[in-house]
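User: what does the whole thing look like in 3D?
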Amino acid sequence: MEKGDKPADKRGAILDAALRLIAERGFHNTPVSMIADVSGVSAGIIYHYFDSKDELILELYRTVKLDMLQSMTDGYSNDLSYRGRFDLLWVNAIRHVISHPDAAAFLEQFESSSYMEPTLPEDCVAEIDLVMGFFADGVAAGVLKDLPTPVLLSLSIGVAASLVKQHLAETLVLDDDLSAAAADACWDAIST
Amino acid sequence: MEKGDKPADKRGAILDAALRLIAERGFHNTPVSMIADVSGVSAGIIYHYFDSKDELILELYRTVKLDMLQSMTDGYSNDLSYRGRFDLLWVNAIRHVISHPDAAAFLEQFESSSYMEPTLPEDCVAEIDLVMGFFADGVAAGVLKDLPTPVLLSLSIGVAASLVKQHLAETLVLDDDLSAAAADACWDAIST
Amino acid sequence: MEKGDKPADKRGAILDAALRLIAERGFHNTPVSMIADVSGVSAGIIYHYFDSKDELILELYRTVKLDMLQSMTDGYSNDLSYRGRFDLLWVNAIRHVISHPDAAAFLEQFESSSYMEPTLPEDCVAEIDLVMGFFADGVAAGVLKDLPTPVLLSLSIGVAASLVKQHLAETLVLDDDLSAAAADACWDAIST
Amino acid sequence: MEKGDKPADKRGAILDAALRLIAERGFHNTPVSMIADVSGVSAGIIYHYFDSKDELILELYRTVKLDMLQSMTDGYSNDLSYRGRFDLLWVNAIRHVISHPDAAAFLEQFESSSYMEPTLPEDCVAEIDLVMGFFADGVAAGVLKDLPTPVLLSLSIGVAASLVKQHLAETLVLDDDLSAAAADACWDAIST
DNA sequence: AATGAATGAGCCTTCATTCAT
DNA sequence: TATGAATGAAGGCTCATTCAT
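Assistant: Here's the predicted 3D structure for the full assembly of 768 residues, as structure tokens:
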């Protein structure tokens, strides 16, 4: 498996179906049998690829989270100014989430639920480090306020997440202009 | 029986137990029978006070949300400066949530789930108006940035919520100093 | 009680409500609490008048059955010819049932169910005897066919019941003419 | 397992058990779990074969009704005289019901209850037409009285049903002689 | 007599998981 | 690998009945 052969990518099909269904219906309104139906496999085989429904969801989280972090850090480089790096993270994050609303809904739900394991997926270490590094370096360079990294995160990426959430709930229209204005405001929040 | 205790406020006991259990275990891991056990009543009587489990949860939401909004707006007055009003809302919100972690966990979970009815409880109108009014007035007065109210909310109250969430998850220690520093940062974000 | 005083005829009100509700909804779709609501009493008091729901239904059966038999034999006299007596029973039965559709529906349901106790209510003995006597006398007199009384009953009253049932189900319009024609046919069936 | 037995016809076993239990105990005294126990399956699997308890009962009705009608019309032919055809229907009906008392009890209960859907099962159309045709043709030929078909049905098949019901209740012994005598009486009722 | 809150057993149904094929 | 019938443990909810008042 994992070879790339299309015919047998059942595992991927299962994860896709699970993402779509859970995003729309929630964990507990998404029976394993429904994931099986939608992904075109039998219920039994799901237990060949995943140990349990919970394990399937956890694995889905890892996949989706990694994807998100990779998109967000795409093109990141220390050659950019701090503001430039911030803007890149901001724009990437917003674009990715807006174009992957199921992923956003799933992450939101997952991270607000008791499924949440406090630790982040291991594969994401590089991307995480990069983002954390941005804030640490910015503080050290005196460009960013001297606040704990989690606070700076809440003041920037957290806000972006909140705005996209409202966009997806259609209680706010987040176009490029508004996104840029919000980025400015966040920069005011975190920069010295 | 139980003379000294509250005079058989079963309804209240049920809501209390539900809040505690759901905050810890989630809606779907909290059977009605468990709520009954913890609140010391029979399972059947719950359906005397509430039409269904969902209705119980919705009612709990209304109660908890109203409580939260009332705490947050306690002492609010247009006599205060904009910054003063902002600080009051900020401090009230953070204090209330930190001292009511179950309520916070419940609200977070509820508002990220499909239980969420898009409309806010009717009893909260006054408090909501007050908060919204703060932002609208501030923009009109040129004190706050000319951004849509939801964006200003995300940049301020949203950040507070995020910080408290991390505090409760014990990934951040949110003492008064840090809270004040974060409030400063948010003020930078929203003020002109 | 039983004095005739209107104010306190709760027992009657309960039976009335039970008849109406059970006729429309069936035994098992008619909770005791609903009978209480409709009859304007509390659920608890029903157990003062009746030992149990089953006993209430049994009592209702006795009442309704007696009423039916009394109507059917009203005006009966051995002075009439056999055919005259038959017509009287026929017309009485059909009239009563058509004007008491709830009673009919209830009896039908009761007598087809496992609630049915094989013995008839004791208060009806006189009326029963009268009807049975009609058939026995008719056979003895050579006017009616020499068949067991239950068979003669099925061939006459049983048919009337069946016709009224269809009338109430609106699958047949049973006017006086058709009723008379059917009575003629039944008379052909039972007479020598 | 259970090698010799029928090859795991669970669906049939469920219907059989349901028929037996419901005939004896009524719909509402027959929990799904009891049907499962008696038919030797788990409760859950019943919902694999039927959408709900109600659907199971409806399906049972269709099966039993079709079986009944097929037995009743077995050997029917327009080559027979009207009286011959009547006797065939009569004898078939009585034999079938007497040898299938559970089916009779179930049908009686079902058709007197609010489960009854006014329309007959679709699969029975041919048999129904045949029986209705008998009466219509007989009237047209001047052999039967000019009464609406439902009335003629009540006067004949309805009586047969009533007699068998009494037989099963052991309030009447319906042997072949008595059955024949009753058929004669019914013929008197419907023929010109 | 009367109320109606309270109980608790039992019912229908769902669904994660297993297993024979 | 793959299927899908089968299991069985819960879960939400109803309702006959009781009991403190």
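In plain terms: Residues 31-33, 43-44, 46-47, 52-53 of chain D lie near DNA strand E (CB under 10 Å from a C1'). Residues 54-190 of chain D form a domain with the Tetracycline Repressor; domain 2 fold (CATH 1.10.357.10).
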